[in-house]
Amino acid sequence: MASASLLKSSPVVDKSEFLKGTQSVRHPTAAVSVRSHPTTTSLTVCATSSYADELIKTASQGLVPLAGSNDESWCQGLDGLASRSAAYYQQGARFAKWRTVVSIPNGPSALAVKEAAWGLARYAAISQDNGLVPIVEPEILLDGEHGIDRTFEVAQKVWAEVFYYLAKNNVMFEGILLKPSMVTPGAECKERATPEQVAEYTLKLLSRRIPPAVPGIMFLSGGQSEVEATLNLNAMNQSSNPWHVSFSYARALQNTCLKTWGGRPENVAAAQEALLVRAKANSLAQLGKYTGEGESEESKKGMFVKGYVY
């Protein structure tokens, strides 16, 4: 059973071995983790290669065209995942992440929704069976001209399928983390939504589809501007809900920081400050106390890229 594996005791890592291994790591982003999309990556406690090297090795994994669909994708990588997960656990990993996407303009077809849900469920069951906490990431892409009601309609179907198959695969809900997209209009929709509307629709979706046993929900930003993603998260935390509603942003944390840095050593301090500003803003948003005051113009720029893949 999946739940039994979560009682595994952590392996004891000899300090000398850890130090010996870390001395050979030159890349600053090397860490103990498993990410199953867009690549499946093993980064060990005693790593001898960089994060970038590991990504290159497994670049063939991830989203690929789904035959018989409306030009949609599915996320491959389940073959051999059990043995890899067991090895990752022994190397020190304690969590995994699997991202799969659903495109509204392309349907979404029933086939694509079922494939996304089944893949996430099998990955979660395999992860728990090997002692890893699965981060389950069903993303409704921002592409399209549709309104917020259409996003809500599709997200209801996708989340229903995901939790149906999670249950069918005996996944322990209290042993997962959910990383979904917020309920927003399509990026090209002329009628924009306020943070209050996004919060209302997203929390309504959570209450209809997510069991209270799920301990944490970390929203992705998906191409929203830094400020927009933070305002929407803040609005959600101004309403009561049984979950810890948090964030797991990439672009909405990194954009201003990376542009400030620009690869120049003399800009490092300013880039670090920009990152701290964003981290503090989202920390306040988790408490419902973010005001949006003093934000830069750069942080207000949208980051949506049509057909974006990573």
UniProtKB/TrEMBL annotation:
One of its GO terms (molecular function) is fructose-bisphosphate aldolase activity. It comes from the Eukaryota. It is an enzyme of class 4 (lyase). Its EC number is 4.1.2.13. One of its GO terms (biological process) is glycolytic process. Keywords: Glycolysis, Lyase, Schiff base. Pathway: Carbohydrate degradation; glycolysis; D-glyceraldehyde 3-phosphate and glycerone phosphate from D-glucose: step 4/4. It catalyses: beta-D-fructose 1,6-bisphosphate = D-glyceraldehyde 3-phosphate + dihydroxyacetone phosphate. Pfam families: Glycolytic (PF00274). Belongs to the class I fructose-bisphosphate aldolase family. This is Fructose-bisphosphate aldolase. It comes from Acorus gramineus (Dwarf sweet flag). The lineage of its organism: Eukaryota, Viridiplantae, Streptophyta, Embryophyta, Tracheophyta.
